[in-house]
Amino acid sequence: MGEKDFRNPAFYTNRELSWILFDHRVLSEARDKTIPLFERLKFLSITASNLDEFFMIRVASLKDQVHAKYEKPDIAGMTPKEQLAALDAAIHKLVDLQYSTYNRALLPQLEQNGLHVIKHHEDLTPEEAAFLDQYFEENVYPVLTPMAVDSSRPFPLIRNKSLNIGALMRRKNKEEELDFATVQVPSVLARIVELPANGNVRRVILLEEIIERNIQKLFLNYDIICAYPFRIMRNADLTIEEDEAADLLKEIEKQLKKRQRGEAIRLEIEDGMDKRLLKILRKELGIEESNIYAIDGPLDLTFLMKMYSLDGFEHLKAPKYEPQQVPRLPAGCNIFDEIRKGDILLHHPYQTFAPVVDFIRQASVDPEVLAIKQTLYRVSGNSPIIAALAQAAENGKQVSVLVELKARFDEENNIVWAKMLEKAGCHVIYGLVGLKTHSKITLVVRREEDGIRRYVHLGTGNYNDATAKLYTDIGLLTCSETIGEDATAVFNMLSGYSEPLKWNSLALAPLWLKDRFLYLIGREKEFAREGRPARIIAKMNSLCDPDIIEALYEASAAGVRIDLIVRGICCLKVGIPGVSENITVRSIVGNFLEHARIFYFENDERYEIYCGSADWMPRNLERRVEILFPVEKQELKEELLHILQNQLRDTIKAHVLQADGSYERVDKRGKESFHSQEAFCQEAMELTREGQEEVASRRTFIPETHHE
After folding, report:
1. What CATH class has 14-114+298-317?
2. What are the boundaries of each domain within the chain?
3. Per residue in 29-39, pLDDT tens?
4. Which residues belong to the active site?
5. Residue 688: φ, ψ to 5°
């Protein structure tokens, strides 16, 4: 076994190609005929949004590496240039499948259910054309800014992700060369415009079709030769020289402006665009042939999320689930009294996020609370947590908040919150140089009869009340002395340079969290070698850290049974003889986005369970501030094990990684039909109705070593 090279590139999948497989799994939900039609629209929209971000960050990063002549291969043995070539083929295939799904599956189904999307403005009836021409004059024309290009007007800035219409035109009554012009489709206006009702079928048209129909009105002295929509994606991967920045906030504000001017890395055009028009766009944007996507359908499918919001189609959507009250925290209770009775586990979105908001709200007005300290990575647009922190500072409490300014695509939002909190009197830290603070922790220091007591909330997800209704996450409320001491040490490290001599319960990245995981995996390996019970179940968003994967391979080779629940990227391969025969990987894609990180180690039948903010990725373990926390109360450990076991039982939303690197839905033959997310919804409602003890007594705990 010692001769086996667990770092052999053949044992690893390229990270970027693994992500493409994940977007295919999301797309498979849009193609699933058993799912309500409007939910399928939503999933298709999500694949488009995912792909946009993938281009702006991951493809952009690879292009930067190629420009810098960086040729070091990744863990799968691929150079940046080879990765881009492989991605080119894979992404074009994905986009073709997106539009095949839209045109062949979803549009006909919408038509059958009374919603017709007009593809081209030439298809309008005379009455509809008259209505839309008036709509253009009154609502659209005043907002537009047509941009012509000639000797006195250079090619304009085409903004990142903006939808535009490019046109070739010739001055009236002249035989001059063709001129180029462009107009941005304004994002401030609704992209979906509904036409006056006429019969049972509702008809809608997209805003760009209305502008294209009326584009002649923007260039009155010209004849329009042709007009086509186009859209570009730019490099949005910010390079922040933190060590040289005198003021991190100002440096990030400056870099955000560059996002609109980054290198163009993708050009989407309408299929059939005039070759002369395309030639101008290619030249001015400096884009390669392989990065041009000719689209058979509307550009930017994220508009389908707006279509999902159309009124009158509720029967084509999944019933809306309302997060349930936590039985241990009845409405109006004193949250500190309840936490003192014992640790409380929260399972979002099945259980409401309200206790987390209440925790901070009650602390902000409680006269016995002396200090509140919190890390914020992403928060909602109108965050009640931000309001409570500001209120606490105004009430004279010591409030310290780390607002991570480098949270990607939330930088501007977080700058606004940071300034507002400072104005209210909070002490605000703008993250740490060289590290992102991704941990989710809140510390409340309270004066009580028997002295100072520290209350702590630890979570796997962001302090965002909006996404908490959509993302599955775990939270823990505790007043454990050891966790309280560690929480104080965390904030002392974040606000100053103080690191304690010892830690009690929490494991931190980038200090020693990775070593902790390697130790826990290695411990299971040693137990297996000794013939003792050994098992690992790990749930996370992504797995691509080579040291962790190597440790998992070693444990598997020693006989450890390893079940991984990995929603997104997975660079580990299964079924390699002598390497990963004891490893299974499944990905669950459903109505809720799987976001929790839960780690189970059997530990010779004295099992331990941890939750945390970190995935098994180099960036989380080496370049971010992350926290892993143990769950020690037996009934809470059983709840978490129950969550893991339910996900391993899922036969509806689980996709299982195959030895050839593909993912397939669970083979249901001989298995009960089981949908883990629906089961958790049902359990949460039963908990609310019947009480925790009664529901817990009905749960079946499968012996850890014999789970099938």
Report:
1. mainly alpha
2. 14-114+298-317, 336-502, 508-706
3. 999 999 999 99
4. 438
5. -65, -40
